[in-house]
Amino acid sequence: MDNYIPKVGVQETITQKEMIEIDAFLLAIMNTTIAKQFFTFLTSKNHPYARDRSTLVKNLKQIWFHPYSRSRGILDSSGFEHVFMGEIKNNKVGGLHNWYRFYLLESRERNSNFDYKGYIKKRFGIISSVKFSWRGYYKKIGSFFMGTSPEFDFFTFTLCFLFRRESSGCNIEINGCPTTITVYDFRYNNKILVGTVYPHIETMTK
Predict the structure, then answer these.
(1) Confidence of residue 167 (pLDDT cuts 50, 70, 90)
(2) 97 given a catalytic annotation
(3) Catalytic residue status for 47
(4) Residue 91 belongs to what domain range?
(5) Which of 56, 59, 69, 136 is spaced 20 to 30 Å from 28 by Cα?
(6) Is residue 66 classed as helix, strand or coil in its secondary structure?
(7) 177-188: strand order across its sheet
(8) Please, are residues 197 and 181 in contact by the beta-carbon 8 Å criterion?
(9) CB-CB contact of 74 with 87 (8 Å)
Protein backbone atom coordinates (compact mmCIF):
# COMPACT_ATOMS: atom_id res chain seq x y z
CA MET A 1 0.00 0.00 0.00
CA ASP A 2 3.01 2.29 0.12
CA ASN A 3 3.56 2.18 -3.65
CA TYR A 4 0.87 4.69 -4.57
CA ILE A 5 1.12 8.47 -4.75
CA PRO A 6 -2.23 9.96 -3.64
CA LYS A 7 -1.84 13.26 -5.49
CA VAL A 8 -3.26 13.10 -9.01
CA GLY A 9 -1.00 14.77 -11.55
CA VAL A 10 2.19 13.16 -10.28
CA GLN A 11 3.73 10.51 -12.52
CA GLU A 12 3.63 7.01 -11.07
CA THR A 13 6.08 4.32 -12.13
CA ILE A 14 5.14 0.68 -11.67
CA THR A 15 8.25 -0.95 -10.25
CA GLN A 16 9.15 -4.62 -10.26
CA LYS A 17 8.37 -4.70 -6.54
CA GLU A 18 4.89 -3.34 -7.16
CA MET A 19 4.24 -5.86 -9.95
CA ILE A 20 5.22 -8.66 -7.57
CA GLU A 21 2.82 -7.30 -4.94
CA ILE A 22 -0.02 -7.04 -7.48
CA ASP A 23 0.57 -10.62 -8.60
CA ALA A 24 0.68 -11.78 -4.97
CA PHE A 25 -2.59 -9.98 -4.21
CA LEU A 26 -4.34 -11.53 -7.21
CA LEU A 27 -2.96 -14.97 -6.38
CA ALA A 28 -4.23 -14.69 -2.80
CA ILE A 29 -7.76 -13.60 -3.69
CA MET A 30 -8.03 -16.10 -6.55
CA ASN A 31 -7.65 -18.89 -4.00
CA THR A 32 -10.75 -17.81 -2.06
CA THR A 33 -14.24 -19.29 -2.16
CA ILE A 34 -15.63 -16.01 -3.48
CA ALA A 35 -13.24 -16.13 -6.44
CA LYS A 36 -14.36 -19.65 -7.30
CA GLN A 37 -18.01 -18.59 -7.13
CA PHE A 38 -17.21 -15.57 -9.29
CA PHE A 39 -15.48 -17.74 -11.90
CA THR A 40 -18.38 -20.22 -11.90
CA PHE A 41 -20.87 -17.40 -12.46
CA LEU A 42 -18.86 -15.96 -15.35
CA THR A 43 -18.64 -19.44 -16.87
CA SER A 44 -22.44 -19.82 -16.65
CA LYS A 45 -22.77 -16.57 -18.60
CA ASN A 46 -20.19 -17.63 -21.19
CA HIS A 47 -18.19 -14.54 -20.35
CA PRO A 48 -14.89 -14.29 -22.26
CA TYR A 49 -12.96 -13.67 -19.02
CA ALA A 50 -13.93 -17.20 -17.89
CA ARG A 51 -12.12 -19.06 -20.65
CA ASP A 52 -9.63 -20.23 -18.01
CA ARG A 53 -8.03 -19.04 -14.78
CA SER A 54 -5.06 -17.33 -16.43
CA THR A 55 -7.37 -15.40 -18.77
CA LEU A 56 -9.40 -14.19 -15.80
CA VAL A 57 -6.31 -13.07 -13.87
CA LYS A 58 -4.91 -11.29 -16.93
CA ASN A 59 -8.13 -9.33 -17.40
CA LEU A 60 -8.55 -8.54 -13.71
CA LYS A 61 -5.04 -7.13 -13.69
CA GLN A 62 -5.83 -4.99 -16.71
CA ILE A 63 -9.16 -3.50 -15.65
CA TRP A 64 -8.01 -2.78 -12.08
CA PHE A 65 -4.28 -2.07 -12.26
CA HIS A 66 -3.54 -0.78 -15.76
CA PRO A 67 -2.26 2.80 -15.29
CA TYR A 68 -4.09 5.71 -16.87
CA SER A 69 -4.21 9.48 -16.66
CA ARG A 70 -6.66 11.60 -14.70
CA SER A 71 -4.63 14.78 -15.25
CA ARG A 72 -2.74 16.25 -18.22
CA GLY A 73 -1.85 12.93 -19.82
CA ILE A 74 0.33 11.86 -16.89
CA LEU A 75 0.03 8.21 -15.83
CA ASP A 76 -1.09 8.97 -12.30
CA SER A 77 -3.96 6.61 -11.50
CA SER A 78 -5.63 3.21 -11.80
CA GLY A 79 -8.96 1.74 -10.83
CA PHE A 80 -7.49 -0.03 -7.82
CA GLU A 81 -5.68 3.05 -6.59
CA HIS A 82 -8.79 5.22 -6.85
CA VAL A 83 -11.29 2.78 -5.33
CA PHE A 84 -9.22 0.98 -2.71
CA MET A 85 -6.48 3.48 -1.83
CA GLY A 86 -7.95 6.92 -2.45
CA GLU A 87 -6.63 9.92 -4.36
CA ILE A 88 -6.40 13.69 -4.07
CA LYS A 89 -7.48 15.83 -7.01
CA ASN A 90 -8.69 19.43 -7.30
CA ASN A 91 -8.23 19.91 -3.55
CA LYS A 92 -10.64 17.06 -2.76
CA VAL A 93 -10.34 13.41 -1.78
CA GLY A 94 -11.59 11.04 -4.45
CA GLY A 95 -12.36 7.35 -4.21
CA LEU A 96 -11.28 5.50 -1.05
CA HIS A 97 -14.22 3.10 -0.87
CA ASN A 98 -12.66 0.38 1.26
CA TRP A 99 -13.24 0.13 4.99
CA TYR A 100 -9.87 -1.46 5.78
CA ARG A 101 -7.93 1.28 4.03
CA PHE A 102 -10.05 3.79 5.95
CA TYR A 103 -9.26 1.97 9.20
CA LEU A 104 -5.52 1.97 8.49
CA LEU A 105 -5.47 5.68 7.70
CA GLU A 106 -7.49 6.52 10.79
CA SER A 107 -5.31 4.42 13.10
CA ARG A 108 -1.93 5.37 11.62
CA GLU A 109 -2.44 9.00 10.67
CA ARG A 110 -4.96 10.10 13.30
CA ASN A 111 -4.44 13.62 14.65
CA SER A 112 -2.02 14.40 11.83
CA ASN A 113 -2.98 13.58 8.26
CA PHE A 114 -6.38 11.97 8.77
CA ASP A 115 -9.45 13.31 10.54
CA TYR A 116 -12.66 11.27 10.71
CA LYS A 117 -15.55 13.72 11.03
CA GLY A 118 -18.39 11.29 11.64
CA TYR A 119 -20.81 9.13 9.76
CA ILE A 120 -23.70 10.37 7.65
CA LYS A 121 -25.62 7.09 7.38
CA LYS A 122 -25.17 3.51 8.53
CA ARG A 123 -27.20 0.45 7.67
CA PHE A 124 -27.23 -2.92 9.46
CA GLY A 125 -23.52 -2.69 10.24
CA ILE A 126 -22.97 -3.55 6.57
CA ILE A 127 -22.54 -0.22 4.82
CA SER A 128 -21.61 3.25 6.00
CA SER A 129 -21.39 6.74 4.53
CA VAL A 130 -18.84 8.98 6.25
CA LYS A 131 -17.10 12.32 5.99
CA PHE A 132 -13.42 12.93 6.66
CA SER A 133 -10.32 14.87 5.71
CA TRP A 134 -7.04 13.37 4.57
CA ARG A 135 -3.79 15.28 4.23
CA GLY A 136 -5.76 18.46 4.65
CA TYR A 137 -8.27 17.67 1.88
CA TYR A 138 -11.94 17.04 2.54
CA LYS A 139 -14.34 14.32 1.41
CA LYS A 140 -17.88 15.35 2.22
CA ILE A 141 -19.33 11.90 1.66
CA GLY A 142 -17.69 8.55 1.04
CA SER A 143 -19.25 5.12 1.35
CA PHE A 144 -18.00 1.58 1.78
CA PHE A 145 -18.99 -1.86 3.01
CA MET A 146 -17.95 -2.50 6.62
CA GLY A 147 -16.03 -5.53 7.80
CA THR A 148 -15.98 -7.21 4.41
CA SER A 149 -12.98 -9.07 3.07
CA PRO A 150 -10.83 -7.58 0.29
CA GLU A 151 -11.94 -10.35 -2.05
CA PHE A 152 -15.62 -9.63 -1.35
CA ASP A 153 -15.25 -5.97 -2.29
CA PHE A 154 -12.99 -6.76 -5.24
CA PHE A 155 -15.20 -9.39 -6.86
CA THR A 156 -18.51 -7.67 -6.05
CA PHE A 157 -17.25 -4.46 -7.61
CA THR A 158 -15.83 -6.39 -10.58
CA LEU A 159 -19.13 -8.18 -11.14
CA CYS A 160 -20.97 -4.86 -11.25
CA PHE A 161 -18.32 -3.43 -13.56
CA LEU A 162 -18.67 -6.30 -16.02
CA PHE A 163 -22.48 -6.48 -16.09
CA ARG A 164 -23.97 -3.19 -14.90
CA ARG A 165 -21.61 -0.34 -15.71
CA GLU A 166 -23.84 1.02 -18.48
CA SER A 167 -27.04 0.83 -16.42
CA SER A 168 -28.53 2.99 -13.68
CA GLY A 169 -26.78 0.94 -11.02
CA CYS A 170 -26.01 -2.52 -9.74
CA ASN A 171 -28.71 -3.46 -7.23
CA ILE A 172 -27.78 -6.10 -4.67
CA GLU A 173 -28.87 -7.15 -1.20
CA ILE A 174 -26.48 -8.25 1.54
CA ASN A 175 -28.01 -9.91 4.60
CA GLY A 176 -31.25 -7.98 4.11
CA CYS A 177 -29.50 -4.69 3.40
CA PRO A 178 -30.34 -3.28 -0.05
CA THR A 179 -27.68 -1.25 -1.81
CA THR A 180 -26.97 0.09 -5.25
CA ILE A 181 -23.40 0.02 -6.50
CA THR A 182 -22.52 2.82 -8.89
CA VAL A 183 -19.96 2.01 -11.57
CA TYR A 184 -18.07 4.26 -13.96
CA ASP A 185 -15.56 3.01 -16.46
CA PHE A 186 -12.51 4.84 -17.77
CA ARG A 187 -11.65 4.64 -21.47
CA TYR A 188 -7.92 4.82 -22.09
CA ASN A 189 -5.96 3.76 -25.19
CA ASN A 190 -8.89 1.67 -26.45
CA LYS A 191 -9.14 -0.14 -23.11
CA ILE A 192 -12.18 -0.14 -20.82
CA LEU A 193 -10.87 0.14 -17.26
CA VAL A 194 -12.35 0.67 -13.80
CA GLY A 195 -12.91 4.37 -13.18
CA THR A 196 -14.70 4.18 -9.86
CA VAL A 197 -17.07 1.84 -8.02
CA TYR A 198 -18.90 2.57 -4.79
CA PRO A 199 -22.02 1.48 -2.86
CA HIS A 200 -24.98 3.63 -1.82
CA ILE A 201 -27.28 3.18 1.15
CA GLU A 202 -30.73 2.59 -0.30
CA THR A 203 -33.99 3.77 1.27
CA MET A 204 -35.81 0.94 3.02
CA THR A 205 -39.35 0.18 1.85
CA LYS A 206 -42.05 -1.75 3.66
Answers:
(1) confident
(2) yes
(3) no
(4) 16-201
(5) 69
(6) coil
(7) 170-174, 177-188, 191-201
(8) yes
(9) no
